[in-house]
Amino acid sequence: MLDVSGGTATNVTQHDGAILKTNTNGTTVSGTNSEGAFSIHNHVADNVLLENGGHLDINAYGSANKTIIKDKGTMSVLTNAKADATRIDNGGVMDVAGNATNTIINGGTQNINNYGIATGTNINSGTQNIKSGGKADTTIISSGSRQVVEKDGTAIGSNISAGGSLIVYTGGIAHGVNQETGSALVANTGAGTDIEGYNKLSHFTITGGEANYVVLENTGELTVVAKTSAKNTTIDAGGKLIVQKEAKTDSTRLNNGGVLEVQDGGEAKHVEQQSGGALIASTTSGTLIEGTNSYGDAFYIRNSEAKNVVLENAGSLTVVTGSRAVDTIINANGKMDVYGKDVGTVLNSAGTQTIYASATSDKANIKGGKQTVYGLATEANIESGEQIVDGGSTEKTHINGGTQTVQNYGKAINTDIVSGLQQIMANGTAEGSIINGGSQIVNEGGLAENSVLNDGGTLDVREKGSATGIQQSSQGALVATTRATRVTGTRADGVAFSIEQGAANNILLANGGVLTVESDTSSDKTQVNTGGREIVKTKATATGTTLTGGEQIVEGVANETTINDGGIQTVSANGEAIKTTINEGGTLTVNDNGKATDIVQNSGAALQTSTANGIEISGTHQYGTFSISGNLATNMLLENGGNLLVLAGTEARDSTVGKGGAMQNQGQDSATKVNSGGQYTLGRSKDEFQALARAEDLQVAGGTAIVYAGTLADASVSGATGSLSLMTPRDNVTPVKLEGAIRITDSATLTIGNGVDTTLADLTAASRGSVWLNSNNSCAGTSNCEYRVNSLLLNDGNVYLSAQTAAPATTNGIYNTLTTNELSGSGNFYLHTNVAGSRGDQLVVNNNATGNFKIFVQDTGVSPQSDDAMTLVKTGGGDASFSLGNTGGFVDLGTYEYVLKSDGNSNWNLTNDVKPNPDPNPNPNPNPKPDPKPDPKPDPKPDPTPEPTPTPVPEKRITPSTAAVLNMAATLPLVFDAELNSIRERLNIMKASPHNNNVWGATYNTRNNVTTDAGAGFEQTLTGMTVGIDSPNDIPEGIATLGAFMGYSHSHIGFD
């Protein structure tokens, strides 16, 4: 620190933060600071830097130029002293009792004291205080800065920019003010205040206790003090007008974001309240407010009554004792405190109203707002939002979507709950509530008395809550816990129910109703209907529960449960069901580690479970006893939604899968029977495949069985709806195998996917049973897809070598070859062919084939380019007979008809040679004489004469479509020839008669029978007539005849 007063200091180096204390009274100082060179000499200070406690006095008749005052720096301009171009930064202070010109305030403070004058000040930020006797002229007040004019201070020509403030205390003077839009004027109408200037609307004044045309915005505020007035005031966003007791305002416009506060005993007439304008007032006697609200309705507060007041955006109304408010609207952030009486208030979203003790509210409409009641509220309508009854009381409240909370010795009487919620908290009471929809929740320490629980409503009694005298309809939802303090009531059927001391009796649960039987508590004779649920917790006990469309979840113990249609009992881990009876349509589900014993499973009942660890089940059904224990399921009956999952490494025996039942085997099963409507799968559950899954002696009697992986050994499929499908293996590690005796009877179906291993299968298809080979694109190509079985026996059975039922053109080039070691019986084979492309399904019998079989062929219909035959059946021998089953014994292949013929070498070909096969043992000589020698030669040679022609010409027959084309072509010449015959006859007549002009006519009726060697033939009946006119003319060479004719004919054709 350097302190120089009247002395000399030269070559001073003033570092940042250094303190210089000095004055201009005979002091000489020179040096440099962070702003450059500075000096004090001959009472003149130039470029002095003051900070961190530094101070400069400009003594009388001294001066200072370009002084910089930083944080904690101060400068005093004493009487008759001058300062020019001073800069006051943040934290700096300048006191002026002399003359200051061109000051720049950047966050600091300038105090204009008595006799001080400041001219041309620019307040960028910070404050200029004009004290009593001080004066400021031509001040610019920028955003974030302010000019304060105290009593007897004077400001001339102040320009207030947006964000800046001019504050004039009582008795202050401000003339020539230019108030720009967004700037703030803070003033009052007190004695001696004298302000005039221009704002964005007009010239304004505050003088002689009256304010005119003042604009208040952006923290601007005008206080109209007692016995003064304000007219034509505009209150914009951020502005505020305060009307004190015995003060008056007239023609006030209250815009969005503005505030009009009329204190007790104040008067405001002709108020024009716009949306978002805030009115703060009370109903105190002597207060008078009149005007129109933001909805365009007239409102008033007078004679201790308020009507049609709108409160929003920090607006508030206090209704004092002995007064009342009618039809108030409280919008967002509006507030109303009622100590007297309120009628018809509307509380919109985020609006609040408090009804204090001894106060009343009637017919309030709560639409998203909040009403707190310490007094009395009657007939409130809660559409949304909340009513809190806190120590007060309500009567006949209507809840239609909102919430009523009753607490702290509050009481709600005769509440009507249509939708929404009534919640009763500690020490709250609700009496006579009617629950038509929505919910009543009784929390710990709360009490509901005589509630009426109608259809669609919910009454929820929680731990240590109480509800007594309940009247419950059949579809009223009761939600309760056995830890409730007390619950009593009467069901729709007249049965009394209760929950006391941890015991629930005769509880009715429906339509969302829930009873939670907690640990170490119990329930007895619970009735669970559709939509209801009983939860039996660990160490809890439920006895005699009846499920009719509802659900019981057992984590503890359930005794003697009856499950009717639609009911479900679920036994969770470590839960136990004892002596459950499952009736038709009911379901018992036992999960892992669950236990169900002494079960009675009646016809149509569903049991859902698995062979997982820990599951123990025992009981009886129509087929005897059943059980699951130690991962073994025995004699299970699965129907009507019943399901058994046999896990890998576990086993099921003698299961019956009925209509609506299902069984998934990932482990082992034997002697399973799948009846009509039942479903069985082997080797798969969801997306899990098991290669080691195995089933033996599967009996599909009208049901459906699908093998995804594993091995099926010995199976029978019967009934028109019975089907067994072996799917194409998913990959090489999850094969599908079929082995043993497989019988398909009574119109049942076996479908085999490509890649299934059937080499050890002995197939029997009888009584219209069918086998389908179902190849997919995995084996598409130039070679056929291969299927192999050990043996094949047909007894009126069918084998479809392609699963495609559409035309061969849709087979995507997939053809199948079925190979069997043995074939016997009688039946039908269905093949697809593309003879033109030398592709087709094929039957191969490695050994002998016996029996009679028909081959049905469906070809693409494209004409082959050659006469080559296609082999459809290959056998290793035997006396089997194969014939074409198509209509007429032939199949159309474009131009010619094809038939099935044996090649004499145990093969059967599709050929266009329709010539019958020769006698298999021809005898060229009908009465051959033996060689006279008794011993024939070992190798006799037959007579060469009977040898057949080495290259016989095949006998072909065209198809009907080809014949039709040929016949149509042949009919046209016949028609033309019949018409020309009538012309020929006319010419003959003309040669034999005179040459006269003639009109002539002729008719004809012919019948033609046509046959061809190719097989085309038709019969034609032709009728018609010809008319004409001719004229003979003599010429040197003879007679020339000119004429014309026309004809009509009708031809009827019958094809052979």
UniProtKB/TrEMBL annotation:
Chain segments carrying region Disordered: 907-957
One MF term in the entry's GO annotations: ATP binding
Gene Ontology cellular-component terms listed: outer membrane
UniProt keyword annotations, A-Z: ATP-binding, Nucleotide-binding
Listed Pro residues bias regions: 917-929
Transmembrane regions: none
SUPFAM superfamilies per record: Autotransporter, Pectin lyase-like
Domain Autotransporter: 992-1056
Biased amino acid composition, Basic and acidic residues: 930-944
Protein name: ATP-binding component of a transport system
